[in-house]
Amino acid sequence: GDLNLKSKAWKDLILEKKIGYLALLRNLRNILEQAPDIIDQACALLIDENLVKKSLVLPFRFLTAIKEIQQTNFDGARKVLIALNKALDIALSNVPKFNGKTLVVLDTSGSMSGQPAEIGSVFAAILIKSNDADFITFSNYAKYQTLNSMDSTLSIAQSINFISGGTNFDAIFDEANKKYDRVIIL
Predict the structure, then answer these.
(1) Residue 152: helix, strand or coil by DSSP?
(2) Which of 48, 45, 39 is nearest to 76 (CA)?
(3) I need a surface site. Which of 85, 106, 122, 138 has the fewest CB within 10 A?
């Protein structure tokens, strides 16, 4: 039937490495559903360093895929989540490295709730991990936070708390007590 055709198509694409990286990322749910027996091979492609680096996939694409897979209970879903976490960390090598000291600042005010908070926290985690940056969150007031850069990018992003309150930019510069070569405000 139809499912067999889809399953065969996924097998051909994945086993012969004919699928583009972004297409693989966008279709993980379909592959889990329609061709679960090749999930190990799909995961191997996901964490292939050359493919990740060549793809230049933007970090939020991994976030979208992770959220999609977390809402399923397909066999192999946990394997895919582990691979996505690894792939996101490999993608850090695509992030520019800055010379000197960097301060990353993230707005955690009420206006950031929802998707801006998710994307903002992932970008903050990426910049912190790839540049060993200091980190401040701010809303009505600002405060330094030290995050464990040994954690996965996703774990760091999910550990950032969003509160509510206003967007007081002055608070950043009241709190920052070191000399930085650059300040990146998200």
Answers:
(1) coil
(2) 39
(3) 85
Per the structure block, which two tokens stand in for 97? Answer: 């490295």
Report the amino acid identity of residue 98: F
Cα angle vertex 64, ends 58, 67, to 5°?
145
DSSP assignment string, 78-97: HHHHHHHHHHHHHGGGGSPP
Residue 79 CA to its chain's centroid (Å): 17
Helices then strands, each counted (H, E), the chain: 10, 4
Tokens of 127: 């910049």
Nearest in space to 152 (alpha carbons), one of 92, 76, 79: 92
pLDDT level of residue 24 (50, 70, 90 thresholds): very high
Measured on CA atoms in the order 20, 26, 32, 35, is the torsion positive or negative? negative
Per-residue model confidence as pLDDT tens digits over 148-158: 888 999 999 99
Do residues 92 and 52 touch, judged by C-beta distance below 8 A?
A: no
pTM of the model: 0.80
Specify the pLDDT at position 2: 83
43 phi/psi in degrees, rounded to 5: -65, -40
Q: Are 94 and 54 in contact (CB under 8 A)?
A: no
